[in-house]
Amino acid sequence: MLRTSSPILQPIREKVEAGERLSLDDGVLLYSPEVPLPELGELANLVRERKNGNFAYYNINTHLNPTNVCVYRCTFCAFRADLRDAKGYWMSDEQILARGQEAVDAGATEMHIVGGLHHQAKYEWYRNVISLLHDTYPTLHLKAWTPVEIDWFCRLTGKSLRWVLEDMIEAGLGSMPGGGAEIFHPEVRNKICEHKADSSRWFETHRTAHELGLRTNCTMLYGHIEEPFHRIDHLIRLREHQDAVLQEGWDGFQTFIPLAFHPENTGLAHLPKSTGLMDLRTMAVSRLMLDNVPHLKAYWIMLGVGTAQVALSYGADDIDGTVRHELIYHDAGAETPEILSVEEICHLIEEAGREPVERDTLYRRVERQGTDWQAGEAIAVQA
Ligand code: V47
User: Which of 10, 23, 185, 353 could lock onto 230 through a cystine, CB 3.0 to 4.6 A?
Assistant: First the structure.
């Protein structure tokens, strides 16, 4: 039973306390300014603690964006470059391997790999990014490619989603990150990323990945031209997908990451940046709507360290990792540091009253002795 009780929230509070599912109308109501944020946070925290207790997860990770040159021109993206742009780059095998070595030396368990769709890169080059890293650094989990890249690989090869995913798994793909989801509703999607993989292709890719035994993440890009209805529609589509794949007995999505739009250097630079209060509200609403996804990430790079810390009491149970070489948000004006140390992350988590747990990409507890590490048992959570 919760301490506070505002009449507008009463029916929703009863549903959450009883473990019942929230509707689209409930979700839209939660975005109403009349719903007090502290109470909303308290409800989301109830669900967060039911699922993940007092744990707050982090990992030691690094990012790799092998090229920023991209055939697509998503209006929200500050990272991409045209083929002949001065800022365009395309990494060599040596540069990629140097990143792998740096990651392993830093004790990383995960490399997050996404990038542009270079006009001249063949499928074999993208496959080689994975096989090169996997063969040289087999302990590094490669969380790579979104449905946008996978769909592009299908076009390059003329092969099916299943073929491409199986081939990437054979090369060393370990899981898929949550990007490319943006906002599923076509009213918004057609305006911000008209040409790339649409929502049905995004879901079909994740479904195929789930069927093949890959764990994947999911995201939502908010704070641009969308309305609360589009956000809740987005969350419900994810929830329905998760219902269907869990029904099949597959693992499905493990983590949801709400991503606040950063306008600087994008085609939507005239829009204001989302506020801390909107970020916390979106975190809490996401936790309440997505009742079947185990983890919710407060990505500190995007939220800022302070908001990420508070978000651990607004539904989030994961803060992402130490991170290094992040470009997507820093190119779009993020003022967060390039990297946090394990000590800094643990301090943030402990100061928020949570217990830090180092996890690997698949949420197994990481046990370390000196520089050696070993993944232990999966940490049990309520789906
Ligand atoms: O798909 C791009 C978003 C996503 C901007 O799976 C932007 O663990 C804000 O998916 N402002 C990529 N957002 C990042 C991503 C992610 C991040 C952290 C962890 C995980 C995970 C996944 O970033 C893109 C797009 O939705 N994005 N440009 C921008 N200017």
Answer: 185
